[in-house]
């Protein structure tokens, strides 16, 4: 069985005209994915962890399932955001990060480890506890960015375009603050959301998608629903 992990950005474009003051260096990205065997697979790793979360909805059968990727501008951390549908119609938002080494101080956010046949050991984290994810979401909201375009590097050495199964875009709000991707974050799980606090701001990551707070945010769509508010900034 072959799966892929987002690891590297292979191209960028300049920030959109008119946003240079708030989005300098931020733009569309093409992310390179590696075709590889993962042990354990993503489902095997994430599903047991989901059942330990206070926001898990108790739905064992999931579907449709989709994902999109965001871009770490440094090209070091894989950012994958899953949308898990269910027969009841409720969707869970489950973003994770993939790292080549442990994230210091984030042991409580570790989902688990897996072996990647091309890249070696990968450390999989709940993205809400990873500062690179938080920084990227804030950038995407501020700059009106969207999910990364995908290119799959196949085992035989050829590259093919891969269409994401979900899409996402930020509202485009110049006043949204930036976060240092090296600075630790504090995330608290609730029964339907995770709250991440920073200096004079609060980012609400919706886990059970539905009514969300007001404010600039990140919106996603997939087979199971459109215009779903995934994360909202307040403060």
Summarize the structure.
With 235 residues, this protein is mainly beta.
Explain how this protein is built.
The termini are far apart. The protein has one domain (3-234). The relative contact order is 0.19. The chain is mainly β and 235 residues long. Strand 9 and strand 10 form a beta hairpin. It is built from three helices and 16 strands. Strands 3-7-8-6-5-4 form a six-stranded antiparallel β-sheet. It has a six-stranded antiparallel β-sheet with strand order 11-15-16-14-13-12, with helices on one face. The model is unreliable at 1-21 (pLDDT under 50).
H/E series, N to C? Answer: EHEEHEEEEEHEEEEEEEE
Task: State the helix count.
Answer: 3
Describe the global form. Answer: globular
Q: How does the helix and strand content classify structurally?
A: mainly beta
Q: What value does the average pLDDT take?
A: 87
Helical residue percent band: 10-25%
Amino- and carboxy-terminal Cα gap:
45 Å
Number of individual domains: 1
Biggest β-sheet strands, sense, barrel:
6 strands, antiparallel
Strand content: 35-45%
Rg computed from alpha carbons, rounded to a whole number of angstroms: 17 Å
């Amino acid at each position: 069985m072959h799966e892929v992990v987002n690891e590297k950005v292979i191209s960028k474009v300049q920030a959109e005209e008119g946003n240079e003051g708030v989005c300098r260096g931020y733009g569309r990205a093409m992310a390179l994915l590696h075709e590889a065997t993962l042990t354990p697979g993503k489902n095997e790793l994430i599903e047991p962890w989901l059942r330990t979360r206070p926001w898990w909805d108790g739905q064992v059968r999931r579907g449709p399932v989709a994902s999109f990727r965001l871009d770490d501008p440094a090209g070091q951390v894989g950012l994958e955001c899953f949308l898990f549908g269910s027969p009841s119609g409720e969707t869970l938002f489950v973003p994770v990060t993939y790292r080549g080494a442990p994230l210091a101080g984030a042991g409580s956010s570790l989902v688990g480890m897996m072996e990647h046949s091309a890249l070696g050991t990968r450390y999989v984290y709940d993205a809400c506890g990873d500062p690179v994810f938080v920084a990227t979401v804030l950038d995407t909201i501020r700059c009106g960015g969207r999910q990364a375009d995908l290119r799959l590097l196949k085992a035989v050495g050829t590259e093919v375009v891969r269409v994401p199964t979900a899409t996402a875009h930020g509202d485009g709000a110049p006043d949204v603050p930036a976060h240092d991707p090296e600075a630790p974050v504090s995330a608290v799980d609730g029964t339907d959301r995770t709250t991440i606090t920073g200096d004079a701001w609060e980012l609400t990551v919706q886990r059970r998608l539905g009514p969300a707070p007001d404010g600039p945010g990140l919106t996603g769509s997939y087979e199971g629903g459109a215009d779903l508010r995934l994360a909202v900034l307040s403060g």
